[in-house]
Amino acid sequence: MVTLFEQLNREEAEMFSLVLNAVGIDHRVVGANRMFRIDVPEHLSTPALTAIHRYQSENAISPPTPATRHRQPVPLPLSGVFVALVLLAVYLAIAASAAPQDYDRVFGADARLILNGQWYRCTTALVLHADATHIAANMVGIALFGSAVCAVTGTGVGWLMILACGFFGNLMNAWFYQRDHLSVGVSTAIFGAVGILCAIQAVGAIRTGKGWKRVFLIAGAGVALLAFLGSGARSDLGAHLFGWLTGALVGGIHGLKVDQALGKRWQVTCGTIAVLTVVASWVRGVVG
Question: What CATH architecture does domain 2-58 belong to?
């Protein structure tokens, strides 16, 4: 969001808000110390100014001075690196256990068992990896694309969206194969993150007519990642595809409905749901 006008009185703020509502431009009126400002999504700032200036000229109203526009600072998210390190710790702990092969059998995304009601496997399988190459590639992918999603959506919302993509990607993959198919790895969620980024950028490009280059760059990075991850014997291209499709749907909805990262309460709530979902899934797998 950028500030369009600031230091408005209540009457001016209400008048400009009515103008923006009339032309269908999303905005936010923020009051402080009896003074108000109007914030709009950055890609809508020019049409918003045009609409207000047209209204002022038609009604012989002297325009206020537009605020110095600035982009709200977005801290560099490091949660993707943290998640990558957690995945590495889990991989090392399983590799050092007495029977590492049993984890795939008990917690992997077995298509037949998922369709028989063991949906928790769609989540627990995301934490398992076949070998060192597998975990290394996925650590890079989740650190890069997970952090990128969180930079746009906020940390809590971003990880809940990515987890949902991994879950539903594995679920749809199980439905596709029906039986005799086992999948492990967080790459399903990684491609969900790629789909989220592509969709959010595409929505912005459609609205403004600009930004298609970034959409193609993200898509190209996803294709390159697919080629890299698809070279392994345990690679699951179906899960990657379904993860991406889920991400495109989730990202498209977010891009259409949300103009900026949601507030702290939303981030904490969504992040808590994501963590509890992972923990509950593993507990469900342990207790059988």
Answer: 2-Layer Sandwich (3.30)
Tokens standing for residue 198: 């592509």
79-287 carries CATH number 1.20.1540.10: yes
DSSP-based helix, strand, coil % in the chain, nearest 5: 70, 10, 25
pLDDT in tens, 65-82: 554 444 444 445 689 999
Predicted structure pTM score: 0.73
Q: Where in the chain is the domain with CATH 1.20.1540.10?
A: 79-287
What mean pLDDT value characterizes the chain? Answer: 84
3-state secondary structure of 68: coil
Q: What are phi and psi of 77, to 5 degrees?
A: -80, 135
Tell me the helices (H) and strands (E) count for the chain, helix number first.
Answer: 13, 5
Q: What is the rounded CA–CA span in Å between residue 177 and residue 115? A: 10
Q: Helix/strand/coil (H, E, C) string of 186-239?
A: CHHHHHHHHHHHHHHHHHHHHHHCCCHHHHHHHHHHHHHHHHHHCCCCCCCHHH
Q: If you search the block for the tokens 């194969």, which residue do you land on?
A: 177
Q: State the span(s) of the chain assigned CATH 3.30.70.1530.
A: 2-58
Q: Which residues 6+ apart lie within 8 Å of 165 measured at CB?
A: 188, 189, 191, 192, 193, 195, 196, 243, 246, 247, 250
What is the per-residue burial (b if ≥16 Cβ within 10 Å, else e) of 64-100?
Answer: beebeeeeeeeeebebbeebbeebeebbeebeeeeee
Q: Amino acid identity, residue 101?
A: Q
Mean pLDDT along residues 148-167 = 94
Least confident piece of the model among 58-67, 68-77, 110-119, 258-267: 68-77
